[in-house]
Design brief:
Blueprint (H helix, E strand, L loop, with lengths): L1 H26 L14 E3 L11 E2 L5 E6 L2 E3 L2 E2 L2 E7 L4 E9 L8 E6 L4 E4 L6 E6 L4 E7 L11 E9 L1
Parallel strand pairs: 1-3, 2-6
Antiparallel strand pairs: 3-12, 4-5, 6-11, 7-10, 7-12, 8-9, 8-11
Length: 165
Amino acid sequence: MKKTLLASLGLTLMLSTTAGIAAAEETNPTANKQLIAVPTLTGNEQEPNGTFEQANPFFVGDSIIGTLGKEGVPGVWEAYDVYKFKAYESQKVHFTIQGDRYPDSWLQMTVYNSNRHKLSRSRDDQYFLDVEFEKGKEYYLVVEAPGLEPYTGRAFFYKVSTEPN
């Protein structure tokens, strides 16, 4: 009888300890678990980035949030945003841009190679672009708003998303 009672008490103690640990993990989901670093999936443009020399870096698969049509740097009206990236493998990439549209101006994307020769441009009022990239090469993405006049008070807030296609 004593053995049964001790075994029963031991089992009860073990189960209550296990339940306590499980409850603590539910309260703190990272307790006793390995944390995995996840890269930032969205980044904001950093001013100034209106020339190839000032291009903001980004990675294919990331998204970019930016603005055109305002003073990015005091006294400098912002007409272009330039981003630089490297193709780590040969692949086709799909670019999508979300943002404002006006009757006389819209957002446009153009991709250049490292020699600054135009490879591809989105069509007027077309908010996507597919481009084939070669492994190891560097490229530039230029975001602009054709028809946008300086200092009119119009601004384009945009998000560019990229994904291998």
